Every structure is written in C-alpha cells, then in structure tokens.
C-alpha cells in the first residue's frame, strides 16, 4: 500500500493517498474484528509502548486492544507515577525508552509538539495519540472511515464541526483531513471558543448553529473541554446547550440523512441531547468507537511495515529515500 511516513505525528504531512491507504486497510481490520477469532500476527515479535501523560481511558484502551489483536507485546507506562513526575525531562525519558528497543511508541501529551520532539530522539515508529491543542490524527482517521462507510464517499460533503473548536485538537485534525479530501467544512462555535485565524484553513465560520447546520451531510459535535479553559468562555452550561447543543430542532436544519458524530466522552445535555446521541438512524457515535480500533490497527501495521523495510535497508547498506 502507498503509505510512506515513518511516524504518524499529524494529518498535516499525510497525502490523500496515505489517508486512503490507512482507510482501505482499516476496512479489512473491521471485518477481522467482527470475527470470533480476532487475532493476526502482523506485529508478532514487536513491542508497543503506550505512554499517556494525559489520562484517556478510551484512546489508550483502543490502542492497547489494537496492538494485542495484531500480536504485539504491549506495555502501558503509568506516566502519572513515572520518573517524569520526579523531574526527568522528556528527552531523558525518550533516551531511556530508546534503550529498551521498542518498535512502536504511542504517546499522548498535554503540550503541543512534545510527540514530535520524542520522535526525533527515538529509533522506533511514533504515533501521536493527541498533543496539546495541536493534533489527534487517529481520531480524524477513524472519523473519516466512519463518514466514508456511512455516506459511501469521503469527498464533496458538507461537514459541520460544532462546539469547543478553540481547545480541540480533534477539530484541527479533522479540518486538515477533510480539506485534503475536498470537502466543504464549516466551524460553528461562540466567538469565545473560535480560534483566531481559523478561516485561513479554507473553512466557513459561523456563530449561529442553525445557519451553520443548513444542508449539512455530517454534524460533528465536540466536547466542551473545561480542563483546558482558564476563564469564563461560556456563561453557563444551560445557556451553551440552548445556543450550541445539538437537539432535534437544530438538527432539522441539516439534511434529512445527515449523520451525527461525537469523539467522546459526551456531556449529554450540554453538547448533545441524549435522544439524538442514541438515535440509531442518525447517530454513528458507537460506530466511531468500533472504527477506532480498526484504524489504529491499520496505522500500526503500516508503520511496522515501513520500520521493517527501513531496518532491512540498513542491514544491506541501502539508503531510505
């Protein structure tokens, strides 16, 4: 498959061909994951280390399950009680890990650019599981797979991304990916939760939910990230839901067959009405969770293939181009 990156640090450096390669392989893993026997030996003999400096039960569990189904030896490092808490620098941590000779390193960190720094210091493949407000590439890829399966294509769709855009790395990764695939992207948020300069990405910006949702094919809600807020970004959760929470009245402005998405965890009654979230005819939120495991399997499989090829060339003295 046409996938050449050594690491997955973000969507920004992926080509449309790279994206299609991940999604096409992920389709195969969707089928595998629905079988009684869900194991393969794609990563047999390889070691995967999950380093989560920020807590994330959903993403970490998804990566762990993906690695084990691929046959890797998976280790979860508890960064909340690690040497980092005792004053060790990120670079020292990277050098220590490198000495253990892992093959795949999955990292979530609260600082933008931290995962890229780690990738420069280790010899294994690195996957960004979310860094600060920068990117969350596997979330965008699993969202893309969910959309493609639901709508039959991943281009020339109108996608509305609604909510806390300012603090969302999910929004940034999706904005980049959907733009690469020639979609019309709308961002909907109160002015306090809309980052400055976002229109430079070629998207449309709205502060009115109904106008932004008009004739949308996909409605992607975002979590209100209070842990990243240091001030009064919204007057109250009740007022926020009234203006920007997704309910049946607002969803009626989208197309009749529009799908509803949310990266989770959801705040019901704040970002989305529970009835909409559970509507099997509109909501694909549970499908997103299922696609997450398959996409992460595909990403690790493709990176492992490139890593093996690189190591093979190193043994024969060839140069990687």
TrEMBL record:
Binding site for L-aspartate: 86, 169, 223
Catalytic activity field: carbamoyl phosphate + L-aspartate = N-carbamoyl-L-aspartate + phosphate + H(+)
Pathway in which the depicted protein is active: Pyrimidine metabolism; UMP biosynthesis via de novo pathway; (S)-dihydroorotate from bicarbonate: step 2/3
Alphabetical keyword list: Pyrimidine biosynthesis, Transferase
A molecular function GO annotation: amino acid binding
EC numbers, comma separated: 2.1.3.2
Cross-referenced InterPro entries: Asp/Orn_carbamoyltranf_P-bd (IPR006132), Asp/Orn_carbamoylTrfase (IPR006130), Asp/Orn_carbamoylTrfase_sf (IPR036901), Asp_carbamoyltransf (IPR002082), Asp_carbamoyltransf_Asp/Orn-bd (IPR006131)
Binding, carbamoyl phosphate: 58-59, 108, 136, 139, 264-265
PROSITE patterns per record: CARBAMOYLTRANSFERASE
Residue span, Aspartate/ornithine carbamoyltransferase carbamoyl-P binding domain: 6-148
Keyword Transferase carried by entry: yes
Aspartate/ornithine carbamoyltransferase Asp/Orn-binding domain location: 157-302
Biological processes, Gene Ontology terms: 'de novo' pyrimidine nucleobase biosynthetic process; 'de novo' UMP biosynthetic process; amino acid metabolic process
GO cellular component, one term: cytosol
Enzyme class: transferase
SUPFAM superfamilies, A to Z: Aspartate/ornithine carbamoyltransferase (SSF53671)
Known function: Catalyzes the condensation of carbamoyl phosphate and aspartate to form carbamoyl aspartate and inorganic phosphate, the committed step in the de novo pyrimidine nucleotide biosynthesis pathway.
HAMAP family in the cross-refs: Asp_carb_tr
Family: Belongs to the aspartate/ornithine carbamoyltransferase superfamily. ATCase family.
Protein name: Aspartate carbamoyltransferase
